[in-house]
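Good day; I would like, with your permission, to put a structural problem before you. What I wish to show you is a protein chain and, alongside it, a tokenised description of its three-dimensional fold. Here, with my thanks, is the record as I have it:
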Amino acid sequence: MNFENILYEIEDGILYLTLNRPEVRNALTPAMWRDIQSAVGLAKADDRVRVVIITGAGDKALASGADIQEIHDRETLKMLEGTSTIALKELEDLYKPVICAVNGYALGGGCELAMACDIRIATGRSRFGQPETGLSIIPGAGGTQRLPRLVGVGRAKELIYTGRIITAQEAKEIGLVNQVTGDSREALMEAARAMALQIMKKGPVAITMAKMAINVGMDTDMNTGLLFERIAQTVAFGTEDRREGTAAFLEKRAARFTGH
């Protein structure tokens, strides 16, 4: 599949979505956000895709933020279109697991992109931040909502108010990053692939139901979340894969899940 600003490549059930503007550190534009949204739609319908890995081309950045010239020239009312917000909500709601492999800077919209993924893995030289207040704007692709949910309200306010850039290690310590690898892109992508393969050994329907239950639960009260969990468990319990999983455990063999 060909896009102007991203690469869409499938290998062994893993979709690699690569932001492909390395000459500008994968700076995000409305056109790139639209490509991301379109790619998510394709991934949703593509039965070959079990797990998605999102990364950036080159060695310098996942995405260094928005294209500042484009931001400078943009008309005020264009902000109401919410191009980035819509793209990242569709990514967050994709029923397949999404891993973000951060290879360098993840600033502004790049950090917001990472936060919309399920799992974040970063090289030791990666950096994270929401520096928008230095431009007298605020995070506009979900940063004011997802960052507090991941690291807590106090830390989120500090990072957004000050625009401070943090290391991968600090990001891991506060819960923004799941895993920190060596500094090379090879080590990063090996870790992301290993994580994807580990997930792919599990029941696909169970992974989908777990993701939906967690996402819904984060946006509702405990009782509603527990009710949704019960419904999701009932769906998973009625699958052929549940019977295969329990049978494989009892027979001491590897399960062969089909997604049914």
User: Anything to note?
Assistant: Residues 6-200 form a domain with the 2-enoyl-CoA Hydratase; Chain A, domain 1 fold (CATH 3.90.226.10). Strands lie at 6-11, 14-19, 51-56, 61-63, 98-102, 105-107, 119-123, 127-129, 166-167, 179-181. Residues 74 and 148 are 28 Å apart (CA to CA). The longest strand covers residues 6-11.
